[in-house]
Design brief:
Elements lengths: L1 E2 L6 E6 L2 H5 L1 H6 L11 E5 L5 H28 L6 H19 L22 H8 L3 H20 L2 H12 L9 H25 L7 H26 L7 H17 L9 H13 L9 H18 L9 H16 L5 H27 L34 H12 L4 H13 L3 H5 L6 E4 L2 E6 L19 E4 L2 H5 L2 H6 L12 H12 L11 H10 L6 H8 L17 H8 L15
Helix pairs in contact: 4-8, 4-9, 4-10, 6-7, 7-9, 8-9, 11-12, 11-14, 12-14, 13-14, 15-16, 16-21
Length: about 600
């Protein structure tokens, strides 16, 4: 905050974050005109010379700037909004209702544009001309008649019929829509006729950018809503002071939207919006909101697929019947072996979980008096949905046979890349999950009374991105097998710089690809990575202590026992158990590099 040049007033400034600034041209192309600027710095007068008042205004202004930045990051991540026909209809009617409130006191002064559509210049493309020339005279005449008829049907149709006909335009079905330039000229005419008002309607709903199809829908529905507004204002000018029914309906829609998004909100409560809020709470490290970013990304991807499938991102209109149809479609894909049945179960359940988050967010907002209504007052409608049952296969089919494990370890000896050289050995002799082994740091490899061990820990980093997440979030210590030490792993670790031992990005997928290269004829049903953990669990089946088995593999330990016996003092005894596993390969005479 500083004095504005040439005035006593204070001014606020904030630097636009580098990630947004570098992508500003993409955002400008999506309609964010605010970023069509040369300076990377926001500057705005606070309108007062009083520093205390200026500080209050600055806080509000910075909050608004942060909201803008969040919206822009959402645009860069998800692209322009995609609206269904019903969402476009709602936005157009809400826009007309706002204009009714603005002009009802002086209806004769309401500005209306000409109802005529502008006619931009049009030249058929060479491809269209070639296609028409290739047709017989009779077919060309038939196509012309069909095109004229389709245009007339679109203009004369009822709102519901127009929604169906517009899908033909979108999907380029029939004449003239099969020629891209005819579709484009329709988009251009609609934008020139009502584009400015559509931008205002979208902005009022909190939508900063929408795709071409969504804008066309709002444009066309807005033209119909404008005609309704014109007629209602005309009747009011003649003395009819009643509130039109369509205005009452729009007010009810607006009330419902505020109930969903908070008193100051206006945007539809989308699955993306719910996940954004859950991510915000996760970043605050609040109890009950400890989702990993990878989990939130997976949920976001599946919800985007669900929204596309149902042609609406509005989470509050989700019904049990609709979710069951989604589940059935996923089961159908599993039956065709396009996805696994386990994936079908996960994808079917994710929308239910996200709606549960929304209900919790809404309950918290009402407790803070920042929300004026209840969403899903009868509870989560998807709770009643039965999820696909996953048949448990024979675990032995997913487990590496010893001869395959030996071949993999021998192949690893020939590798120089750390992930391929050491992760297979770690997984075989420690039973760690891939993400646990891949997340090890140099400081996690330690020695106690002559016994080397690794610390598999859950660490809450400075940011959510830095969290090292494992199931159960419980630190454990796993002794290193003598075969792993003889192989040279400890010496390799000592020579490494501080920090991570392995590259994290796409690590699991790269390891899987490498394993498949070792077994070009295929692995059968053996899991390329997790099958090594299965093998370790098979090798420790003869341990007398079930608790030791659960501890080393990171399984849940019930009762008060889970909090005891987890210091370095357990290493010598646990090391004897680990080294009771016979080496899969003869120990080398000297350490490998």
């Amino acid at each position: 905050m500083a004095k504005r040049k040439g005035t006593a007033n204070e001014q606020a400034w904030r630097r636009i974050p580098p990630d947004i600034w570098q992508a500003r041209h993409k955002l400008v192309a999506m309609g964010v005109s605010t970023l069509n600027r040369k300076s990377q710095q926001w500057q705005q007068s606070l309108g007062t010379a009083d520093r205390d008042e200026a500080s209050l205004r600055k806080a509000g202004l910075e909050a608004e700037w942060r909201r803008e930045e969040q919206l822009w990051r959402g645009l860069l991540r998800d692209g322009p909004a995609s609206l269904s026909e019903m969402e476009a209809l709602e936005l157009a009617r809400l826009g007309a209702a706002r204009r009714w409130e603005q002009h009802k006191s002086s209806p004769l002064d309401a500005p209306f544009k000409s109802q005529a559509f502008p006619r931009p210049p049009f030249t058929p493309s060479e491809a269209a001309q070639s296609a028409l020339r290739a047709m017989s005279l009779e077919d060309r005449e038939a196509a012309k008649r069909e095109g004229i008829a389709n245009l007339k049907r679109l203009m004369d149709a009822s709102p519901l019929e127009r929604m169906h006909l517009l899908r033909e335009v979108r999907d380029a079905r029939g004449y003239p829509w099969c020629f891209p330039e005819f579709r484009q000229i329709g988009l251009t005419m609609a934008e020139e006729r009502r584009g400015e008002a559509t931008s205002a309607d979208l902005e009022a709903a909190g939508i900063r950018a929408a795709d071409e199809w969504s804008r066309l829908l709002v444009n066309l529905e807005g033209i119909g809503a404008e005609e309704q507004l014109r007629e209602s204002l005309g009747r009011r000018a003649l003395g009819d002071l009643s509130v039109p029914q369509w205005v009452t309906d729009a007010e009810r829609i607006e009330t419902q939207r505020k109930a969903l998004t908070g008193a100051g909100g206006g945007a539809v409560l989308t699955f993306d919006g719910i996940i954004d809020e859950e991510e915000r709470l996760a970043r605050l490290r609040l109890e009950g909101h400890d989702k990993a970013l990878s989990t939130l990304r997976k949920y976001r991807t599946v919800c985007k697929q669900f929204a596309t499938w149902r042609a609406s991102g509005n989470a509050t209109t989700t019904t049990l019947a609709e979710a069951e149809r989604w589940r059935d479609a996923l089961v159908g894909m599993a039956d065709k072996e396009e996805i696994s049945r386990k994936d079908a179960r996960i994808k079917a359940g994710i929308p239910r979980a996200v709606i549960g988050w929304a209900i919790a967010h809404n309950r918290e907002a009402r407790a803070r008096d920042t929300c004026v209504g209840i969403i899903f007052p009868d509870g989560n409608p998807l709770v009643a949905m039965a999820l696909p049952r996953v048949e448990q296969g024979d675990p032995s089919e997913r487990t590496y046979p010893k001869h395959m494990a030996r071949r993999l370890l021998e192949a690893a000896r020939l590798e120089e890349r750390p992930e391929f050289r050491w992760l297979p050995w770690l997984l075989v002799y420690t039973g760690m999950r891939h993400n646990e082994a891949a997340g090890l740091e140099k400081a996690d490899i330690r020695e106690y009374e002559g016994c080397w061990f690794c610390v598999v820990r859950w660490k809450m980093g400075a940011t959510l991105e830095e969290d090292r997440v494992q199931k159960g979030k419980r630190t454990r210590r796993i002794p290193l097998h003598d075969a792993l030490i003889a192989e040279g792993f400890v010496e390799w670790v000592k020579a490494r710089p501080d920090g991570r031992l392995f590259t994290r990005k796409h690590g699991d997928q790269r390891l899987r690809e490498w394993v498949h290269s070792v077994f070009p004829k295929g692995l059968g049903k053996v899991d390329p990575v997790h099958g090594l953990r299965h093998l370790f669990e098979a090798l420790i089946m003869d341990w007398d202590s079930e608790r030791s088995q659960d501890y080393v593999t990171g399984r849940s330990i019930k009762g008060s026992a889970k909090g005891y016996g987890q210091s370095d003092a357990i290493i010598p005894a646990l090391g004897k158990l680990v080294n009771s596993i016979p080496p899969l390969l003869p120990l080398p005479t000297k350490s490998a590099n």
